[in-house]
Amino acid sequence: MDDTIEITGFTAAPFASEGIEHLVYRGGTGPAVIVLHEIPGLHPGVIEFSQRLVARGFHVVMPSLFGTPRKAVSGGYIAQSLVSACVAKEFTNWALNQTSPVTKWLRALAFDAHRANGGPGVGAIGMCFTGGFALGMMVDDCMLAPVLSQPSLPFAAGKKRSKSVGISNADLAIVKKRVEAGACVMGLRFSADKMVPDERFETLREELGEGFLAVEIDSSPNNPNKISTKAHSVLTLDFVDSVGHPTYEALERVLEFLDDRLRV
Question: Strand pairing of 143-149 and 122-127?
Answer without folding.
Answer: parallel
